Amino acid sequence: MKKIIVSTICTVALVTMVQAQTIKKVKITDVIKMADTATSPLIINFWASWCKPCVQELPWFEKVVADYQSKGVKLVLVSLDFAEDYPKGIADFAKKKGYKSTIVWLNETDANMFCPKIDKTWEGTIPVTLMVNNAKKYRAFYNQQLPEAQLVKAVKALVE
Predict the structure, then answer these.
(1) How many C-beta atoms lie closer than 10 Å to residue 109's C-beta?
(2) Residue 12 located in a structural domain
(3) Which end of the chain has fewer CB atoms at under 10 Å, N or C?
């Protein structure tokens, strides 16, 4: 009986770990659909593991989104890492940093095509963030790193 219980616990733990490291491959149309159909306030952050300002701001995003969880705020981290880093490199990086948010990998190479679909002012730099609240018809694009204090103000505008 002990072996069955231990085996079951180990299996559940292994499945949970594997699921936590799963990073879905998406196209820009999938990201746009996420934004357009979101039923709660949504933050979409475009980043890469090799981008120092991106990595610097991600803990702020995780903290602020956790603080606004009761308001239904969701965060999707869209990785722009290189194809050779998908999925293992991105998953390992996220696990090492302790990121809890949903991470997807953008399977696109033509920034001239996908950037203006998110915002016509986006010229390909990262980090950038799109915030949408479809219930309020709210959409804001931040073409820069968002320091924590500015991020808090942005999220307040998103939910209030």
Answers:
(1) 9
(2) no
(3) N
- Asked whether residue 149 is assigned to any structural domain, the reply reads yes
Q: What's the structural domain count of the chain?
A: 1
Residue 11 lies in a domain: no
Q: What are phi and psi of 141, to 5 degrees?
A: -120, 130
In the sheet that holds 24-26, the strands lie side by side as 24-26, 102-106, 74-79, 42-47, 128-133, 138-142
What's the predicted TM-score (pTM) here?
0.87
Instruction: Give the integer Cα–Cα distance in Å for 148 and 17.
Output: 29
pLDDT for 47-98, tens place per residue?
A: 999 999 999 999 999 999 999 999 999 999 999 999 999 999 999 999 999 9
